[in-house]
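Aim 2, interim progress. The first record below pairs a target sequence with its C-alpha coordinates.
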Amino acid sequence: MTKLEIERQFPLHWVTGRPRTPAADRKDARFRDEGRQMSLTTAFDRLHRQMDMITPHGRSWRTTGLVLSCNIRFTRHGTRDRNYGMREPDDTGVAFYFALDGHPHALACDRWSTVADNIAAIAAHIEALRGQERWGVADLKQAFAGHVALPPPDPWWKVLGVSPDASLAEIEAAFRALAKQAHADAGGSDAAMVRLNLARDAA
Protein backbone atom coordinates (compact mmCIF):
# COMPACT_ATOMS: atom_id res chain seq x y z
CA MET A 1 0.00 0.00 0.00
CA THR A 2 1.48 3.35 -1.05
CA LYS A 3 1.64 6.36 1.22
CA LEU A 4 -1.59 8.28 1.54
CA GLU A 5 -1.27 11.67 -0.16
CA ILE A 6 -3.06 14.90 0.77
CA GLU A 7 -2.99 17.60 -1.91
CA ARG A 8 -2.75 21.17 -0.63
CA GLN A 9 -4.86 23.65 -2.58
CA PHE A 10 -4.65 27.45 -2.66
CA PRO A 11 -6.73 29.59 -2.32
CA LEU A 12 -9.49 28.42 -0.01
CA HIS A 13 -12.53 26.79 -1.66
CA TRP A 14 -15.11 26.81 1.11
CA VAL A 15 -17.65 23.99 1.33
CA THR A 16 -20.85 24.87 -0.52
CA GLY A 17 -23.71 25.60 1.87
CA ARG A 18 -21.54 25.65 4.99
CA PRO A 19 -22.07 28.87 7.04
CA ARG A 20 -19.03 31.04 7.70
CA THR A 21 -17.86 32.28 11.09
CA PRO A 22 -17.58 36.10 11.11
CA ALA A 23 -13.97 37.22 11.53
CA ALA A 24 -14.86 39.05 14.75
CA ASP A 25 -16.14 35.78 16.27
CA ARG A 26 -13.01 33.71 15.65
CA LYS A 27 -11.21 32.65 18.81
CA ASP A 28 -7.81 31.37 19.89
CA ALA A 29 -7.94 27.58 20.13
CA ARG A 30 -6.40 25.42 22.83
CA PHE A 31 -4.68 22.98 20.48
CA ARG A 32 -1.03 22.72 21.47
CA ASP A 33 2.21 21.35 20.02
CA GLU A 34 4.31 20.29 23.03
CA GLY A 35 2.94 23.21 25.04
CA ARG A 36 3.43 25.73 22.24
CA GLN A 37 1.00 27.22 19.75
CA MET A 38 -0.03 24.68 17.13
CA SER A 39 2.30 24.67 14.11
CA LEU A 40 1.17 24.04 10.54
CA THR A 41 3.45 21.01 10.30
CA THR A 42 2.06 19.36 13.44
CA ALA A 43 -1.53 20.16 12.50
CA PHE A 44 -1.05 18.66 9.04
CA ASP A 45 0.63 15.58 10.57
CA ARG A 46 -2.34 15.09 12.92
CA LEU A 47 -4.75 15.24 9.99
CA HIS A 48 -2.62 12.84 7.96
CA ARG A 49 -2.42 10.39 10.86
CA GLN A 50 -6.19 10.37 11.39
CA MET A 51 -6.83 9.72 7.70
CA ASP A 52 -4.22 6.95 7.71
CA MET A 53 -6.00 5.21 10.59
CA ILE A 54 -9.33 5.05 8.75
CA THR A 55 -7.92 2.19 6.65
CA PRO A 56 -6.93 -1.04 8.44
CA HIS A 57 -3.29 -1.96 7.96
CA GLY A 58 -2.62 -3.90 4.77
CA ARG A 59 -5.93 -2.99 3.08
CA SER A 60 -6.59 -0.74 0.08
CA TRP A 61 -7.18 2.88 0.98
CA ARG A 62 -10.77 3.64 2.03
CA THR A 63 -10.11 7.32 1.42
CA THR A 64 -9.02 8.83 -1.91
CA GLY A 65 -8.75 12.24 -3.55
CA LEU A 66 -7.72 14.05 -0.37
CA VAL A 67 -7.52 17.84 -0.81
CA LEU A 68 -6.79 20.36 1.94
CA SER A 69 -7.81 23.86 0.87
CA CYS A 70 -6.77 27.05 2.65
CA ASN A 71 -5.37 30.54 2.09
CA ILE A 72 -1.76 29.56 2.75
CA ARG A 73 0.24 28.70 -0.33
CA PHE A 74 2.57 25.70 -0.20
CA THR A 75 5.39 24.66 -2.50
CA ARG A 76 5.19 21.40 -4.44
CA HIS A 77 7.39 19.89 -1.71
CA GLY A 78 4.74 20.63 0.92
CA THR A 79 6.55 23.49 2.67
CA ARG A 80 5.05 26.95 3.11
CA ASP A 81 5.82 29.22 0.18
CA ARG A 82 7.70 32.14 1.74
CA ASN A 83 7.28 34.19 -1.44
CA TYR A 84 3.66 34.75 -0.40
CA GLY A 85 4.46 35.98 3.09
CA MET A 86 4.42 34.27 6.47
CA ARG A 87 1.66 36.16 8.27
CA GLU A 88 -1.66 34.56 9.07
CA PRO A 89 -4.19 35.13 6.24
CA ASP A 90 -7.24 37.30 6.91
CA ASP A 91 -9.46 34.28 6.23
CA THR A 92 -8.12 31.39 8.31
CA GLY A 93 -10.77 28.91 7.19
CA VAL A 94 -9.87 25.40 6.07
CA ALA A 95 -11.85 22.98 3.90
CA PHE A 96 -10.93 19.30 3.61
CA TYR A 97 -12.31 17.22 0.75
CA PHE A 98 -12.01 13.46 0.31
CA ALA A 99 -13.88 10.39 -0.89
CA LEU A 100 -14.74 7.69 1.66
CA ASP A 101 -15.47 4.34 0.02
CA GLY A 102 -16.04 6.21 -3.23
CA HIS A 103 -18.44 8.83 -1.85
CA PRO A 104 -17.37 12.53 -1.70
CA HIS A 105 -17.20 14.20 1.71
CA ALA A 106 -16.12 17.59 3.00
CA LEU A 107 -15.21 18.98 6.40
CA ALA A 108 -14.66 22.68 7.07
CA CYS A 109 -13.65 24.82 10.01
CA ASP A 110 -13.12 28.56 10.40
CA ARG A 111 -13.91 28.97 14.09
CA TRP A 112 -10.29 29.50 15.14
CA SER A 113 -7.89 32.37 14.54
CA THR A 114 -5.14 30.39 12.80
CA VAL A 115 -5.09 28.01 9.85
CA ALA A 116 -3.11 25.48 11.91
CA ASP A 117 -5.76 25.39 14.63
CA ASN A 118 -8.55 24.92 12.09
CA ILE A 119 -6.65 22.00 10.56
CA ALA A 120 -6.11 20.54 14.05
CA ALA A 121 -9.84 20.93 14.74
CA ILE A 122 -10.70 18.91 11.63
CA ALA A 123 -8.21 16.23 12.68
CA ALA A 124 -9.78 16.10 16.16
CA HIS A 125 -13.25 15.82 14.63
CA ILE A 126 -12.15 12.88 12.46
CA GLU A 127 -10.68 11.20 15.54
CA ALA A 128 -14.06 11.59 17.31
CA LEU A 129 -15.92 10.11 14.33
CA ARG A 130 -13.49 7.19 14.21
CA GLY A 131 -14.27 6.62 17.89
CA GLN A 132 -17.93 5.97 17.03
CA GLU A 133 -16.85 2.99 14.94
CA ARG A 134 -14.42 1.73 17.58
CA TRP A 135 -17.10 1.98 20.27
CA GLY A 136 -19.68 0.16 18.15
CA VAL A 137 -22.03 3.14 17.93
CA ALA A 138 -21.81 3.62 14.15
CA ASP A 139 -19.65 2.56 11.24
CA LEU A 140 -17.60 5.20 9.44
CA LYS A 141 -20.16 5.65 6.66
CA GLN A 142 -22.80 6.47 9.27
CA ALA A 143 -20.41 8.66 11.26
CA PHE A 144 -19.50 10.73 8.19
CA ALA A 145 -23.04 10.79 6.77
CA GLY A 146 -23.54 14.43 7.68
CA HIS A 147 -20.47 15.46 5.71
CA VAL A 148 -21.37 14.13 2.26
CA ALA A 149 -20.53 16.86 -0.24
CA LEU A 150 -19.58 17.70 -3.77
CA PRO A 151 -15.89 17.34 -4.64
CA PRO A 152 -13.81 20.54 -4.48
CA PRO A 153 -14.09 22.86 -7.46
CA ASP A 154 -11.13 23.35 -9.75
CA PRO A 155 -9.02 26.45 -8.99
CA TRP A 156 -10.33 29.53 -10.81
CA TRP A 157 -7.28 29.81 -13.06
CA LYS A 158 -7.77 26.26 -14.32
CA VAL A 159 -11.43 26.91 -15.08
CA LEU A 160 -10.54 30.09 -16.98
CA GLY A 161 -7.44 28.62 -18.63
CA VAL A 162 -5.08 31.32 -17.36
CA SER A 163 -2.10 31.41 -15.01
CA PRO A 164 -2.58 32.04 -11.26
CA ASP A 165 -0.83 35.40 -11.75
CA ALA A 166 -3.03 36.52 -14.67
CA SER A 167 -3.95 40.20 -14.87
CA LEU A 168 -7.52 41.39 -14.50
CA ALA A 169 -7.62 42.12 -18.24
CA GLU A 170 -6.48 38.56 -19.06
CA ILE A 171 -9.06 37.12 -16.67
CA GLU A 172 -11.90 39.15 -18.19
CA ALA A 173 -10.84 38.26 -21.75
CA ALA A 174 -10.69 34.55 -20.92
CA PHE A 175 -14.06 34.73 -19.17
CA ARG A 176 -15.75 36.43 -22.14
CA ALA A 177 -14.32 33.92 -24.61
CA LEU A 178 -15.39 30.91 -22.53
CA ALA A 179 -18.78 32.43 -21.72
CA LYS A 180 -19.61 32.57 -25.43
CA GLN A 181 -19.01 28.80 -25.65
CA ALA A 182 -20.78 28.02 -22.37
CA HIS A 183 -23.93 30.01 -23.13
CA ALA A 184 -27.03 27.91 -23.74
CA ASP A 185 -27.52 29.56 -27.19
CA ALA A 186 -24.14 28.14 -28.22
CA GLY A 187 -24.90 24.63 -26.98
CA GLY A 188 -23.58 25.20 -23.49
CA SER A 189 -25.41 24.89 -20.18
CA ASP A 190 -26.44 26.84 -17.10
CA ALA A 191 -24.06 24.70 -15.02
CA ALA A 192 -21.13 25.67 -17.24
CA MET A 193 -21.98 29.37 -16.86
CA VAL A 194 -22.28 29.03 -13.08
CA ARG A 195 -18.84 27.40 -13.00
CA LEU A 196 -17.36 30.26 -15.04
CA ASN A 197 -19.06 32.92 -12.93
CA LEU A 198 -17.77 31.36 -9.71
CA ALA A 199 -14.25 31.20 -11.17
CA ARG A 200 -14.37 34.88 -12.19
CA ASP A 201 -15.69 35.85 -8.75
CA ALA A 202 -12.86 33.91 -7.08
CA ALA A 203 -10.31 35.59 -9.36
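The second target in this work package is listed in the same format:
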Amino acid sequence: MFVSSGVLRHSLVSSCLLAAACGGYGDYKVAQPTTPSAIASSGGGAPAPVSSGYEPAHAAASYEPARPSMGESRVAEPVPDRPGLGTTFGESVYAPISYAPFQRASSAPWAEVLLHYNDAQGIEAHAAYLGARPEPLEVYAGDGSLAVALVDDAGRTLPGLSAGGRTLIVGEDGARYKIIVRNGTTARFEIVASVDGLDVIDGKPADPGRRGYIVDPHDTLVIDGFRTSDSDVAAFRFGKVADSYAAQTSGDRNVGVVGMAIFSERGAVWTPAELGRRDSADPFPARGYAVPPR
Protein backbone atom coordinates (compact mmCIF):
# COMPACT_ATOMS: atom_id res chain seq x y z
CA MET A 1 0.00 0.00 0.00
CA PHE A 2 1.41 3.38 -0.96
CA VAL A 3 0.60 6.94 0.03
CA SER A 4 1.61 10.19 -1.52
CA SER A 5 3.65 11.16 1.49
CA GLY A 6 6.87 11.91 -0.30
CA VAL A 7 9.64 14.08 1.00
CA LEU A 8 10.80 16.32 -1.78
CA ARG A 9 14.22 17.18 -0.51
CA HIS A 10 15.95 17.73 -3.83
CA SER A 11 17.56 21.12 -4.27
CA LEU A 12 18.57 21.24 -0.60
CA VAL A 13 18.99 17.52 0.08
CA SER A 14 19.86 14.63 -2.22
CA SER A 15 16.51 12.85 -2.57
CA CYS A 16 12.84 12.94 -1.74
CA LEU A 17 10.53 10.49 -0.06
CA LEU A 18 7.05 9.15 -0.74
CA ALA A 19 5.69 7.25 2.23
CA ALA A 20 4.18 3.78 2.34
CA ALA A 21 0.83 3.84 4.14
CA CYS A 22 0.19 2.30 7.55
CA GLY A 23 -3.50 2.44 8.44
CA GLY A 24 -6.88 3.00 6.89
CA TYR A 25 -6.22 5.81 4.42
CA GLY A 26 -6.52 3.81 1.20
CA ASP A 27 -4.07 2.93 -1.54
CA TYR A 28 -2.01 5.54 -3.30
CA LYS A 29 -0.43 5.56 -6.70
CA VAL A 30 1.48 8.51 -8.12
CA ALA A 31 -0.44 9.67 -11.17
CA GLN A 32 1.01 11.48 -14.14
CA PRO A 33 -0.22 15.08 -14.58
CA THR A 34 -1.64 15.78 -18.02
CA THR A 35 1.06 15.97 -20.66
CA PRO A 36 1.88 19.31 -22.28
CA SER A 37 0.37 18.09 -25.58
CA ALA A 38 -2.86 17.16 -23.85
CA ILE A 39 -2.90 20.50 -22.06
CA ALA A 40 -2.44 22.35 -25.32
CA SER A 41 -5.41 20.59 -26.88
CA SER A 42 -7.81 21.37 -24.05
CA GLY A 43 -10.07 24.42 -24.25
CA GLY A 44 -11.22 26.75 -21.51
CA GLY A 45 -13.91 29.28 -20.83
CA ALA A 46 -17.08 30.22 -22.68
CA PRO A 47 -17.15 32.79 -25.52
CA ALA A 48 -18.43 36.27 -24.78
CA PRO A 49 -22.04 36.95 -25.80
CA VAL A 50 -22.53 38.37 -29.27
CA SER A 51 -23.17 42.11 -29.26
CA SER A 52 -26.54 42.95 -30.81
CA GLY A 53 -25.89 46.63 -31.50
CA TYR A 54 -25.43 49.99 -29.84
CA GLU A 55 -28.15 51.51 -27.68
CA PRO A 56 -27.75 55.24 -26.95
CA ALA A 57 -28.20 56.35 -23.35
CA HIS A 58 -31.24 58.51 -24.20
CA ALA A 59 -33.08 55.75 -26.08
CA ALA A 60 -36.54 54.77 -24.90
CA ALA A 61 -36.98 51.58 -22.91
CA SER A 62 -38.78 50.03 -25.88
CA TYR A 63 -35.83 50.60 -28.18
CA GLU A 64 -34.84 47.42 -30.00
CA PRO A 65 -31.35 47.31 -31.52
CA ALA A 66 -31.01 46.61 -35.21
CA ARG A 67 -30.55 42.98 -36.19
CA PRO A 68 -27.92 41.95 -38.72
CA SER A 69 -29.30 41.74 -42.25
CA MET A 70 -29.20 38.62 -44.38
CA GLY A 71 -25.61 37.67 -45.16
CA GLU A 72 -24.14 39.75 -42.34
CA SER A 73 -22.31 38.05 -39.49
CA ARG A 74 -21.37 39.24 -36.04
CA VAL A 75 -18.06 38.30 -34.45
CA ALA A 76 -18.10 37.71 -30.68
CA GLU A 77 -15.71 39.84 -28.68
CA PRO A 78 -12.84 37.75 -27.24
CA VAL A 79 -12.97 36.96 -23.55
CA PRO A 80 -10.41 39.26 -21.86
CA ASP A 81 -7.53 37.58 -20.06
CA ARG A 82 -7.63 37.66 -16.28
CA PRO A 83 -4.97 39.96 -14.85
CA GLY A 84 -2.20 38.77 -12.57
CA LEU A 85 -0.25 35.52 -12.33
CA GLY A 86 -0.93 31.80 -12.42
CA THR A 87 1.46 28.82 -12.31
CA THR A 88 2.46 27.20 -15.58
CA PHE A 89 3.51 23.61 -16.29
CA GLY A 90 7.22 24.34 -16.63
CA GLU A 91 10.28 22.50 -17.88
CA SER A 92 11.22 19.05 -16.58
CA VAL A 93 13.32 19.05 -13.41
CA TYR A 94 15.11 15.99 -11.97
CA ALA A 95 13.61 15.38 -8.51
CA PRO A 96 13.76 11.68 -7.48
CA ILE A 97 11.56 10.24 -4.75
CA SER A 98 11.56 7.14 -2.55
CA TYR A 99 8.92 5.60 -0.24
CA ALA A 100 8.64 5.35 3.55
CA PRO A 101 5.82 4.45 6.00
CA PHE A 102 3.75 7.22 7.57
CA GLN A 103 0.56 6.91 9.63
CA ARG A 104 -1.44 10.04 10.36
CA ALA A 105 -2.30 10.81 13.96
CA SER A 106 -5.71 12.06 12.79
CA SER A 107 -7.72 12.45 9.61
CA ALA A 108 -7.92 16.19 10.39
CA PRO A 109 -4.89 18.35 9.52
CA TRP A 110 -2.63 19.42 12.38
CA ALA A 111 -2.34 22.81 10.65
CA GLU A 112 -3.18 24.51 7.35
CA VAL A 113 -1.28 27.19 5.44
CA LEU A 114 -2.68 29.44 2.69
CA LEU A 115 -0.47 31.64 0.52
CA HIS A 116 -1.90 34.02 -2.10
CA TYR A 117 0.48 35.07 -4.86
CA ASN A 118 0.34 37.66 -7.62
CA ASP A 119 2.49 40.15 -9.49
CA ALA A 120 3.60 43.35 -7.75
CA GLN A 121 0.69 45.38 -9.16
CA GLY A 122 -1.80 42.72 -8.08
CA ILE A 123 -0.34 42.52 -4.57
CA GLU A 124 -0.56 46.30 -4.20
CA ALA A 125 -4.21 46.19 -5.28
CA HIS A 126 -4.95 43.28 -2.90
CA ALA A 127 -3.20 45.06 -0.04
CA ALA A 128 -5.27 48.19 -0.70
CA TYR A 129 -8.42 46.03 -0.77
CA LEU A 130 -7.49 44.72 2.69
CA GLY A 131 -6.51 48.19 3.91
CA ALA A 132 -2.90 47.19 4.57
CA ARG A 133 0.62 48.08 3.53
CA PRO A 134 3.53 45.75 2.70
CA GLU A 135 5.63 44.56 5.62
CA PRO A 136 8.25 41.83 6.21
CA LEU A 137 6.85 38.38 5.53
CA GLU A 138 7.01 35.52 8.05
CA VAL A 139 4.81 32.43 7.67
CA TYR A 140 4.56 29.78 10.38
CA ALA A 141 2.32 26.73 10.62
CA GLY A 142 0.47 25.59 13.74
CA ASP A 143 2.35 26.57 16.88
CA GLY A 144 5.33 27.79 14.89
CA SER A 145 6.97 24.39 14.58
CA LEU A 146 7.09 24.59 10.77
CA ALA A 147 8.05 27.56 8.57
CA VAL A 148 6.68 27.90 5.05
CA ALA A 149 7.86 30.11 2.17
CA LEU A 150 8.03 30.46 -1.58
CA VAL A 151 11.59 30.88 -2.87
CA ASP A 152 13.09 31.74 -6.23
CA ASP A 153 15.42 29.54 -8.27
CA ALA A 154 18.39 30.72 -6.20
CA GLY A 155 16.66 29.87 -2.90
CA ARG A 156 15.86 33.47 -1.95
CA THR A 157 12.56 33.96 -0.11
CA LEU A 158 10.04 35.87 -2.21
CA PRO A 159 8.80 39.19 -0.77
CA GLY A 160 5.28 39.58 0.54
CA LEU A 161 3.07 40.82 3.33
CA SER A 162 0.53 39.61 5.85
CA ALA A 163 -2.71 41.55 6.27
CA GLY A 164 -6.32 40.91 7.13
CA GLY A 165 -5.65 37.24 7.79
CA ARG A 166 -4.09 36.84 4.34
CA THR A 167 -0.50 36.15 3.32
CA LEU A 168 0.34 37.75 -0.03
CA ILE A 169 3.47 36.83 -1.99
CA VAL A 170 4.95 38.85 -4.87
CA GLY A 171 5.88 36.84 -7.98
CA GLU A 172 7.28 37.79 -11.37
CA ASP A 173 6.01 36.67 -14.77
CA GLY A 174 8.26 33.92 -16.15
CA ALA A 175 10.18 33.36 -12.92
CA ARG A 176 10.54 29.89 -11.43
CA TYR A 177 9.64 29.28 -7.78
CA LYS A 178 9.67 26.46 -5.22
CA ILE A 179 7.69 25.71 -2.07
CA ILE A 180 9.84 25.35 1.06
CA VAL A 181 8.74 23.79 4.38
CA ARG A 182 11.25 23.83 7.26
CA ASN A 183 10.64 21.48 10.18
CA GLY A 184 12.04 22.68 13.51
CA THR A 185 10.90 19.66 15.54
CA THR A 186 11.99 16.09 16.28
CA ALA A 187 8.81 14.74 14.64
CA ARG A 188 7.88 13.95 11.05
CA PHE A 189 4.98 15.68 9.28
CA GLU A 190 3.06 14.95 6.10
CA ILE A 191 2.49 17.89 3.74
CA VAL A 192 -0.40 17.73 1.28
CA ALA A 193 0.31 20.66 -1.05
CA SER A 194 -1.70 22.31 -3.81
CA VAL A 195 -1.02 25.05 -6.36
CA ASP A 196 -3.91 26.85 -8.05
CA GLY A 197 -6.24 24.25 -6.54
CA LEU A 198 -4.33 21.32 -8.08
CA ASP A 199 -2.51 18.57 -6.17
CA VAL A 200 1.24 18.95 -6.77
CA ILE A 201 1.71 15.17 -7.11
CA ASP A 202 -0.85 14.23 -9.76
CA GLY A 203 -2.20 17.56 -11.04
CA LYS A 204 -5.80 16.68 -10.14
CA PRO A 205 -8.15 18.91 -8.05
CA ALA A 206 -6.64 18.91 -4.55
CA ASP A 207 -8.16 17.31 -1.44
CA PRO A 208 -6.58 17.16 2.06
CA GLY A 209 -7.74 13.54 2.22
CA ARG A 210 -5.14 12.65 -0.43
CA ARG A 211 -1.61 11.78 0.62
CA GLY A 212 1.39 14.09 0.37
CA TYR A 213 5.09 14.59 1.06
CA ILE A 214 6.95 13.83 4.31
CA VAL A 215 9.26 16.34 5.94
CA ASP A 216 11.74 14.70 8.33
CA PRO A 217 12.75 16.05 11.77
CA HIS A 218 14.93 19.17 11.56
CA ASP A 219 14.86 18.93 7.77
CA THR A 220 13.65 21.01 4.83
CA LEU A 221 11.12 19.90 2.25
CA VAL A 222 11.51 21.41 -1.22
CA ILE A 223 8.64 21.03 -3.69
CA ASP A 224 9.94 22.01 -7.14
CA GLY A 225 6.90 21.43 -9.35
CA PHE A 226 4.05 19.19 -10.46
CA ARG A 227 5.26 15.59 -10.28
CA THR A 228 5.39 13.80 -13.63
CA SER A 229 7.20 10.61 -12.54
CA ASP A 230 9.18 9.11 -9.66
CA SER A 231 12.21 11.04 -10.89
CA ASP A 232 10.95 14.29 -12.43
CA VAL A 233 8.62 17.26 -11.93
CA ALA A 234 7.37 20.07 -14.17
CA ALA A 235 8.82 23.23 -12.63
CA PHE A 236 6.56 25.84 -11.05
CA ARG A 237 6.80 29.02 -13.12
CA PHE A 238 4.75 32.16 -12.77
CA GLY A 239 2.91 33.05 -15.96
CA LYS A 240 -0.27 34.56 -17.34
CA VAL A 241 -3.50 33.12 -15.95
CA ALA A 242 -4.52 31.88 -19.42
CA ASP A 243 -1.23 29.97 -19.68
CA SER A 244 -1.49 28.39 -16.23
CA TYR A 245 -1.67 24.62 -15.83
CA ALA A 246 -4.99 25.00 -14.00
CA ALA A 247 -6.58 27.15 -16.72
CA GLN A 248 -5.59 24.60 -19.37
CA THR A 249 -6.86 21.59 -17.42
CA SER A 250 -9.56 22.00 -14.76
CA GLY A 251 -10.21 25.78 -14.93
CA ASP A 252 -8.76 29.01 -13.53
CA ARG A 253 -11.21 29.58 -10.64
CA ASN A 254 -8.55 28.88 -7.96
CA VAL A 255 -5.52 30.40 -9.68
CA GLY A 256 -3.23 32.45 -7.42
CA VAL A 257 -3.14 30.35 -4.26
CA VAL A 258 -0.78 27.80 -2.71
CA GLY A 259 -2.23 25.61 0.02
CA MET A 260 -0.83 23.11 2.51
CA ALA A 261 -2.62 20.68 4.82
CA ILE A 262 -0.12 19.49 7.43
CA PHE A 263 -0.61 16.20 9.28
CA SER A 264 1.27 15.02 12.36
CA GLU A 265 2.38 11.41 12.68
CA ARG A 266 0.68 8.97 15.03
CA GLY A 267 2.62 8.79 18.27
CA ALA A 268 4.48 11.45 20.24
CA VAL A 269 4.84 14.79 18.50
CA TRP A 270 7.44 16.94 20.23
CA THR A 271 6.29 20.34 19.15
CA PRO A 272 6.93 23.53 21.17
CA ALA A 273 3.33 23.36 22.41
CA GLU A 274 3.75 19.79 23.72
CA LEU A 275 7.14 20.59 25.28
CA GLY A 276 5.62 23.68 26.90
CA ARG A 277 2.85 21.60 28.48
CA ARG A 278 5.41 19.20 29.95
CA ASP A 279 7.66 21.98 31.14
CA SER A 280 4.77 23.68 32.96
CA ALA A 281 3.28 20.47 34.42
CA ASP A 282 2.28 21.00 38.08
CA PRO A 283 3.04 18.07 40.45
CA PHE A 284 0.63 19.47 43.07
CA PRO A 285 -2.35 21.10 41.38
CA ALA A 286 -4.74 23.01 43.64
CA ARG A 287 -6.99 20.71 45.69
CA GLY A 288 -10.64 21.42 46.33
CA TYR A 289 -13.29 19.60 48.34
CA ALA A 290 -15.27 16.54 47.49
CA VAL A 291 -18.73 17.17 46.07
CA PRO A 292 -21.78 14.97 46.73
CA PRO A 293 -22.83 12.61 43.96
CA ARG A 294 -25.77 13.60 41.78
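The chain has one domain: 2-28+81-279. This observation will shape the mutagenesis plan for the next reporting period.
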